Protein backbone atom coordinates (compact mmCIF):
# COMPACT_ATOMS: atom_id res chain seq x y z
CA UNK A 1 0.00 0.00 0.00
CA UNK A 2 1.19 3.49 -0.87
CA UNK A 3 -0.29 6.43 1.04
CA UNK A 4 -0.19 9.90 -0.49
CA UNK A 5 -2.16 13.10 -0.62
CA UNK A 6 -4.17 14.11 -3.65
CA UNK A 7 -1.94 16.98 -4.70
CA UNK A 8 -1.98 17.17 -8.49
CA UNK A 9 1.78 16.56 -8.72
CA UNK A 10 1.43 13.26 -6.87
CA UNK A 11 -1.43 11.72 -8.80
CA UNK A 12 -2.20 10.92 -12.43
CA UNK A 13 -4.18 8.30 -14.32
CA UNK A 14 -0.96 6.74 -15.60
CA UNK A 15 0.30 6.42 -12.03
CA UNK A 16 -2.98 4.91 -10.81
CA UNK A 17 -2.98 2.39 -13.67
CA UNK A 18 0.65 1.53 -12.94
CA UNK A 19 -0.30 0.88 -9.30
CA UNK A 20 -3.15 -1.41 -10.34
CA UNK A 21 -0.87 -3.32 -12.73
CA UNK A 22 1.66 -3.87 -9.94
CA UNK A 23 -0.96 -4.74 -7.30
CA UNK A 24 -0.18 -1.64 -5.25
CA UNK A 25 -3.05 -0.17 -3.27
CA UNK A 26 -2.87 3.60 -3.61
CA UNK A 27 -4.53 5.26 -0.64
CA UNK A 28 -5.17 8.99 -1.10
CA UNK A 29 -5.64 11.25 1.91
CA UNK A 30 -7.95 14.25 1.64
CA UNK A 31 -6.09 17.55 1.24
CA UNK A 32 -5.57 19.88 4.19
CA UNK A 33 -6.66 17.31 6.77
CA UNK A 34 -4.04 17.48 9.52
CA UNK A 35 -5.39 14.51 11.43
CA UNK A 36 -5.01 12.29 8.40
CA UNK A 37 -1.52 13.43 7.54
CA UNK A 38 0.86 12.45 10.34
CA UNK A 39 3.77 12.63 7.90
CA UNK A 40 3.19 16.36 7.40
CA UNK A 41 2.72 16.81 11.15
CA UNK A 42 5.94 15.26 12.35
CA UNK A 43 8.22 13.87 9.67
CA UNK A 44 8.64 16.15 6.70
CA UNK A 45 9.70 19.09 8.90
CA UNK A 46 12.61 17.15 10.42
CA UNK A 47 13.47 15.69 7.00
CA UNK A 48 13.69 19.18 5.51
CA UNK A 49 15.72 20.38 8.51
CA UNK A 50 18.29 17.57 8.27
CA UNK A 51 18.57 17.78 4.48
CA UNK A 52 19.09 21.55 4.62
CA UNK A 53 21.75 21.13 7.33
CA UNK A 54 23.59 18.43 5.39
CA UNK A 55 23.39 20.48 2.21
CA UNK A 56 24.87 23.48 4.03
CA UNK A 57 27.69 21.33 5.42
CA UNK A 58 28.40 20.00 1.90
CA UNK A 59 28.51 23.53 0.49
CA UNK A 60 30.89 24.68 3.23
CA UNK A 61 33.11 21.67 2.59
CA UNK A 62 33.18 22.31 -1.17
CA UNK A 63 33.31 26.08 -0.91
CA UNK A 64 30.38 28.45 -1.23
CA UNK A 65 30.85 28.92 -4.98
CA UNK A 66 30.72 25.20 -5.73
CA UNK A 67 27.47 23.68 -6.89
CA UNK A 68 25.94 20.48 -5.66
CA UNK A 69 25.87 17.73 -8.28
CA UNK A 70 22.75 15.67 -8.98
CA UNK A 71 24.57 12.60 -7.68
CA UNK A 72 25.02 14.35 -4.31
CA UNK A 73 21.27 14.75 -3.85
CA UNK A 74 20.63 11.05 -3.28
CA UNK A 75 23.45 10.64 -0.80
CA UNK A 76 22.43 13.70 1.22
CA UNK A 77 18.75 12.78 1.08
CA UNK A 78 19.40 9.22 2.31
CA UNK A 79 21.45 10.59 5.23
CA UNK A 80 18.68 13.06 6.10
CA UNK A 81 16.07 10.34 5.81
CA UNK A 82 17.98 8.10 8.24
CA UNK A 83 18.12 10.96 10.75
CA UNK A 84 14.51 12.08 10.37
CA UNK A 85 12.47 8.95 9.75
CA UNK A 86 13.20 7.18 13.00
CA UNK A 87 10.80 4.94 14.89
CA UNK A 88 10.56 7.59 17.60
CA UNK A 89 9.74 10.41 15.15
CA UNK A 90 7.15 8.27 13.38
CA UNK A 91 5.46 7.44 16.68
CA UNK A 92 5.52 11.12 17.69
CA UNK A 93 3.99 12.13 14.34
CA UNK A 94 1.06 9.77 14.77
CA UNK A 95 0.61 10.90 18.39
CA UNK A 96 0.72 14.60 17.41
CA UNK A 97 -2.01 14.06 14.84
CA UNK A 98 -4.13 12.20 17.39
CA UNK A 99 -4.21 9.06 15.26
CA UNK A 100 -2.27 6.71 17.57
CA UNK A 101 -2.88 6.47 20.34
CA UNK A 102 -6.29 7.87 19.41
CA UNK A 103 -6.94 11.23 21.09
CA UNK A 104 -10.47 12.61 20.82
CA UNK A 105 -9.24 16.09 21.81
CA UNK A 106 -6.88 16.18 18.83
CA UNK A 107 -9.53 14.93 16.45
Care to describe what's here?
The model has no long low-confidence stretch (mean pLDDT 85). The protein has helices spanning 13-21, 38-42, 44-62, 70-84, 87-96; strands spanning 2-5, 26-29. The protein is mainly alpha-helical. Strand 1, helix 1 and strand 2 (26-29) form a beta-alpha-beta unit. The protein is 54% helix and 7% strand. It has 2 domains: 1-32, no CATH class; 33-100, no CATH class. The protein is built from 5 helices and 2 strands; from the N terminus they run E-H-E-H-H-H-H. A two-stranded parallel ribbon has the order 1-2.
Properties at a glance:
two-stranded parallel sheet; mainly alpha; 107 residues
Counted beta strands: 2
SSE pattern, N- to C-terminal: EHEHHHH
Helical content stands at 40-55%
User: In what range is the share of β-strand residues?
Assistant: 5-15%
- Structural class comes to mainly alpha
Low-confidence stretches: none
* Count of folded domains: 2
* Biggest β-sheet strands, sense, barrel: 2 strands, parallel
Q: Mean pLDDT across all residues, rounded?
A: 85
Any idea what the radius of gyration is? 17 Å
**Span from first to last CA?**
24 Å
Shape: globular
Number of helices: 5
Q: How are the strands of the biggest sheet laid out side by side?
A: 1-2
Amino acid sequence: MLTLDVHSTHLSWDFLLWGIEHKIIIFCLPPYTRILQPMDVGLFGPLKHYYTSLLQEQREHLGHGAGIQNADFYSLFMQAQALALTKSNIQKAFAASGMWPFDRQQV
